[in-house]
Write a structure and sequence with these properties.
CATH superfamily of the largest domain: Carboxypeptidase-like, regulatory domain
Strand order of the largest sheet: 3-2-5-6
Radius of gyration: 71 Å
Largest sheet: 4 strands, antiparallel
Strand content: over 45%
Shape: rod-shaped
Number of helices: 4
CATH class of the largest domain: Mainly Beta
CATH architecture of the largest domain: Sandwich
Amino acid sequence: MKLRVVLIALLPILTLLITNSPMGVDAQASANLQIFISDHCGKHAPSGANLKVNIINSNGTPHTYGNIDAYNDTHSLLNVTLAEGNYTVEVMWMDVPVARTQITLVNNTTITILTETTLVKFRIRDYGGDKGLGDAILRLSREGKDMGTYSTNSKGEVEVLLPYGDYIIEEIKWRGRTVLEDRSFSVDGSRCIQTVNLKCRVGGIRVLITDEGGIPVDRDKVKVTLLRYDRVIEGPVQPTEYGYVTFDLLLFDYYTIIVDFRVHWNGKSSELEVYRKSIELSEEALGDRSYVEEHIVIPLIKNVEIHITDSEGQLLDNVELRAIAGQYVSRPAPRGVVRFGYLLKRSYSYEIVWNSKIWGTRLFKGTIEVNSTVVNIRLPLYTLRVDLRGDRCPEIEEFSIKLYDENWKLIGDTQPFKTLLKGTYHLKIVWHSEELGNITLVKKTIEIEKSYTLPVEYDFYRVSFKIVDPSEQPISNSTVNIVLPNERVLVLETDHEGKTKYLLLPKGAYHITVKYRGVIIHDQDLEVNSDGVISLIGMVQDLILKVVNRLGNTIQGARVKLMIELADGTLKEIGEEYTDISGIAVFKCIPRYARAEKYILIVNYQGREYSFTKPFLADETTVEWKVSLDVVVVLFGNPLSLLEFLLLVSTCLVVGVISIVVILRLRRKREFETIFEEYARRRRKPKRRLIPW
């Protein structure tokens, strides 16, 4: 029973010996040969299909042994039974002769062969040499012969036992792309383990995200995404508490970094893209670094105030920020201010609702640039200022300035006129003068497209009117009627110098009429454009009357009354004058009646009245008229005409003659009495004694 167990145990060994023995070898003349095979340092065992051993006998007959397993970590073992004799042992590794030795086999022999091989450790790293490329594929060649393809472990390393010689790394592929090619190296026996460090076209991108002050942004508000050709490679990821986001083991290429920032509007969060940049990952970009570093500054502004103002920066009431960046926030703006805890420095679209008593509810849309803690949104609401100025312009309190819309609806009566929309308006300026009343100085249509000051030049002049005749002699007691711009007629009286009182008139054209003795003697449209006295020449004439008697002697003290008869028979009394020592009476400032036909002159002298007529000379400024009274002598205050004078003289002559006759006949009483009786009879008077004696 024990013998059977021993035979069963020896059966596999005997089978192996028979199998590995050369054909035709006599078991009685054989010996056992153990060959331990290692690298040149004796520390690494070549094994497997790449290891072949050729044993050549003295007759040159080879026998090849392959697929030799490792005996331990350092050696592989080939155990064969050969006939005693001389042999050549040749070791092939990867089809490359790596060892050759001569042996004489007499007894059981054990030999160790150190091959010309070295364990090469390939360390496949990124460009910075810091990180290994796991699952990278390494393809080698030697003298044009493919030496195999090898895959790295998770650390990016692979160990290959290679024969001495020169090699070329045909390519290294990682993630489907070639990251290194055509790299040569040599294997020798200088070291037990030869390390080949390979830096591939793989790098990293490191992003630092801070605000403008260099402080890392709250990581919960930021997400970073890495794209290549619009395809997401990594992300979105959040930065570390120090603000870093690192993308390792990236193939050399062009990448796009997108940074999204999370904002909250009325309790709802949304993400805004705040940064997008294309980055090249290449040898030039890396230099001697492991990462292409990008410092991304998120322009975050804290405690932002949005001031909603008119075009001049005045804060508005009754406004609401309805939307910003397309998000409805519906934030009322007390006194025109809306506050945010933080905003990104960027452009924002906005919608603002303004409630106006005049314009109703208005919606404004636009964009703003948020780049400071105070941002002004200037709505297209304009301000109009009226600058009323000019020479001698009264105080502004004396004016009312009113603005109307295009339909003449009152917008306001106090300037400046604020919060005006773009459009057409009507401006009306009225001067409230205590003396002249309310005068509209300006009534014009204006276009509002911006805030501005409208200069209104209106000069005022202090003027007085002087009415003179054609010889520039003043005409007193005349009436000057001025038609004002408000259609009111201002009536002024001239004094003894022919002047009116001074008054303040705005520059402009006025219709002026001058009446004298009820007749218009001046009618003119006058432009008032300077201070001073304005002389107006009245359409009057002077009549110089000279009164003489029949003998051509002047008559003094005659009362002369002048009238003018019109075409309709109406008599216009001009006045009365007395002739002076020269017999002259002057009638000044006689109106030139339009329908006058003749002068009528009535002269009263010493109780007698004389009348004369003369055609009216309308074109003459001075009319000289000489009239002759039928007077030759004034006797006892009575003017006598020529006839009367002759009659008186005749009477006197008659009386004288009679007196002489009477005296001559006094001597003859009877004759006298007869004469007187006859005379008395003729006179029908009682007879009386004329001569008592």
